[in-house]
Amino acid sequence: MSKDARWSTLLEMLAQHGRLGVEDAAAALDVSSATIRRDLDELHEQQLLTRTRGGAVAHGVSYELPLRYKKSRQAAEKERIGRAVAELVAPGEVVGLTGGTTITEVARALSVRPDIVGDADAGGKGRPPALTVVTNALNIAHELTIRPQIKIVVTGGVARSQSYELTGHLASGVLAEIAMDVAVLGVNALTVESGAYVHHEGEANINRLLAERAQRTIVAADSSKIGKRAFVRVCALDQVDVLVTDDALPEAAAAGFRDAGVTVVTV
Question: Which of 15, 12, 70 has the alpha carbon at shortest distance from 230?
């Protein structure tokens, strides 16, 4: 197992359990205890965990894995969610996309839709683009820029290395001047009682603005996010029109969202 793979697995285990022991981690990864100690020391130096005697702990309730380490979490579910959300977008619409692994899958699904990228003349002189995407996520903008039929608007702002998202007043200033048909939000947590949450206050503000500037709001979140809470609230549930999640969501939980007026799509 490569170092990157070990680190990703260690951070996944830490996010799940909140605490790691050297011996348990070594057994799980089938490597020596000395290797795990070195890995934990290096991850501690990168401020991705807190080293303890005999292991490591997460950084508390707002613990957040960097995007580069989250790609494998619920990967199949996120791909299905991405395709389902993409089908809810009509050609010609203006779509706001936040950052995150699930929303990246939404962007990828949009980028291969034949009715969007198949129109070679869209976006040409005198013709509107097949789709306009407004995003504060650098990785999403990078992936979609190669699609000439899709117009990309990037908010500006200060980049976060955790998520590749742009935040701050520069991003807020751009969004204040834009009207969108639909905003697609990636969240870290969603509850019927309190609404949508993320880990970082700057991202919460941009996500909130995207929802406010759009005619309808879609939350794209795998079922592991449902019923949880994170550090900062993005919006109340009455600002969410559609929840797209995976089919592991319990029916009772889905019914709670439907009773609150949210359309629930499970895939």
Answer: 15
